[in-house]
UniProtKB/TrEMBL annotation:
Claim: Lipid metabolism is one of the keywords in the record: no
Highest taxon of source: Bacteria
Source organism (scientific name): Arthrobacter gyeryongensis
Lineage: Bacteria, Bacillati, Actinomycetota, Actinomycetes, Micrococcales
Alphabetized UniProt keyword annotations: Pyridoxal phosphate
SUPFAM superfamilies: Tryptophan synthase beta subunit-like PLP-dependent enzymes
Gene3D superfamilies per UniProt: 3.40.50.1100
Protein's name according to its UniProt entry: D-cysteine desulfhydrase
Membrane-spanning parts: none
The keyword Hydrolase appears for this protein: no
Domain (Tryptophan synthase beta chain-like PALP) ranges: 10-288
Length: 301
């Protein structure tokens, strides 16, 4: 029998200099790097791949045949759960907020290509529906954003990986959604050098990240989270994110997404302009999300 392929990407993910973007932000050309967690071998890549490796190993151990998870319509996590399920031969049910749109775009199109089953929650609570389906269909439940204290370990390991690649790390900037990515990084690197940028996915990102770090058995310390980039709310594109996407594309030929990495870069730009970046090499964690760009009507107009 062919062994199940439980490694979803090649590690370490690359770290590369972005000298033209650095210059545009008033940072020395060798002072700013991207860690490319958007470059991974599973359906478009992104930070959920690391977390899913751990979650899927757990699902396999428990003999799961069906998976269920929740998300927004353009959820990168839902798309990557569909991909991970496909790779392991499991059926994937995605419980997504709102009504089924006429046309499947962005992540939704990829979900369908990957063979996932859609359940559109309408105005009902996606988590309630997922809990019911988990019982009815004997499905293994993957939490919102693929985040819990178990899977956040993936980003503790990524933090260790980053410190090996960038020993003089001054700061790493990361978007915060469900909080698992930031929590894991803080566990490895400490609160001082991890700069979270809140996307507005949760009501209280700070509390969620602190709780995860605590559940992992680490001390959270004083978390650095920029709450200024949420704007009108998670689902709304901000002017600062649009500018950050354009600047990064035009300086480096690298594409960010409107929900997470666009906001995170807007936070980094603001910190650089206000001279609030700590000494040492600045790293931007590119957490993926490109398909979301093709499912976002606001950026298309
Ligand atoms: C989910 C996501 C994040 C946030 O990660 P969390 O671990 O949920 O905080 C950041 N960037 C992208 C592109 C994402 O899809």
């Amino acid at each position: 029998m062919i062994e199940m392929k439980m490694h979803f990407f090649l590690r370490p993910t690359p770290v590369e200099a972005v000298p033209r973007l650095a210059a545009a932000l008033g940072i020395p050309p060798d002072g700013l790097f991207f860690k490319r967690d958007d470059l991974m071998g599973l359906a478009g890549g992104g930070n959920k791949v690391r977390k899913l490796e751990i979650m899927m190993a757990d699902a396999v151990r428990r003999g799961a045949r069906v998976l269920v998870t929740t998300g927004a319509q353009q959820s990168n996590h839902a798309r990557l759960t569909a991909a991970a399920g496909a790779r392991l031969g499991m059926h994937v049910i995605l419980v997504l907020a709102g009504e089924r749109p006429e046309k499947l775009t962005g992540n939704l199109l990829l979900d369908q290509i990957l063979g996932a089953e859609f359940v559109f929650a309408g105005t009902s609570d996606t988590e309630t529906i997922a809990a019911e389906l988990a019982t009815e269909r004997d499905a293994f439940r993957i939490p919102f954003g693929g985040t819990n204290a178990l899977s956040a370990e993936a980003y503790r390991q990524a933090g260790v990986e980053l410190l090996e690649q960038v020993p003089d790390l001054g700061s790493v900037t990361v978007a915060v959604g469900s909080g698992g990515t930031m929590a894991g990084l803080v566990a490895a690197i400490g609160a001082e050098r991890v700069r979270g940028v809140d996307s507005g996915a949760l009501k209280d990102a700070r509390a969620a990240v602190a709780r995860l770090i605590d559940e992992m058995g680490f001390a959270s310390g004083a978390l650095r989270i920029d709450e200024e980039q949420v704007g009108a709310g998670y689902e709304y594109l901000t002017e600062a994110a649009r500018e950050a996407i354009d600047l990064t594309a035009r300086m480096e030929g690298i594409i960010l997404d409107p929900t997470y990495t666009g906001r995170a870069m807007a936070g980094l730009i603001s910190a650089a302009r206000h001279h609030r970046l700590p000494e040492g090499t600045a790293v931007f964690l590119h957490t993926g999300g490109l398909p979301g760009l093709f499912g976002n009507e606001q950026i298309q107009s």
